[in-house]
Amino acid sequence: MSTFRANQALVADEILLDGRLVLFHQRERWLVVADLHFGYELSQRAAGRLVPLWGMASISERLLQLVAEYRPSRLIILGDLVHDQTAALKARELLERIRNFCEPIVVAGNHDRQLHGEIDLFDSWETERFYFHHGHCAAEPSDRIQIIGHHHPAGTISDGAGLRLKCPAFVQQSRCWIMPAFSPWASGTKWAQDEPSRVWLCTPERILRLPETEPAQI
Questions:
Q1: Taking the model in full, what pTM does it have?
Q2: 89: phi > 0 → left, psi -120 to 50 → alpha, else beta; which?
């Protein structure tokens, strides 16, 4: 009998997807999250747009709750820790809070270019089976499965009566897995398959696996 909750799914041996937008390796004890875009609202306010300031609090609370629950040895952030340099100080404070519980590994994303020298960034991270990078640049072929962010995948479900709901998605291809964006500001983009994929729609309460389909012929 499965002990997993409705918002959890075993997507590979010892690897658990949580509908709260993280991936966890039960034996190696790493927790992966992508595309926080922390401080998006600070960036928007600096540009003169009066965006409410709830996004950073949401990210901090959700992430620290997941770290406390899963107790990982490492938290791997797959790039776009921040939206831009405006949030550098606040991002460092968040990493210090995380460091009280585990080691944060920040992989550089395309939005993190200005953080070099302010926050320790890795171009990539790897284990025996997996190669972690942001995904905005192509990686050399590897015998490891790539785990990336950047693309903000999403999928849509319908009730047949016209109601449609778009949800963040975790996508599994044979040699590449794509994480959903953790940012509450990232609505996501419908995933266009270029090879057979498994797509898991994520909500805090439940995970839904979409039927597998062949990629569209172009």
A1: 0.92
A2: alpha
